[in-house]
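Support request, please re-run this one:
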Amino acid sequence: MNNSPMASMESIGRKIAKIRASKGVSQEDLAGLAEVNRGYISRIENGHVAFSVPVLLKIAAALKVKPEELFK
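Re-run finished. Output below.
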């Protein structure tokens, strides 16, 4: 695995998608809870966009997980 920052964003995005799916939350629902655009959630989950710490914190709160869970 590549250790570049993009690889890390991709793995975080995959983790968000996995947690979201395991909780039965749609991208649309997550977007509403995190107060971001659904397309942005999709791009985050697919590793196609960089995201800020505040957005990551909003997503973690919306999924009801500690932010560090997104890095495991």
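The CA atoms of residues 53 and 67 lie 10 Å apart. The chain has a mean pLDDT of 92.
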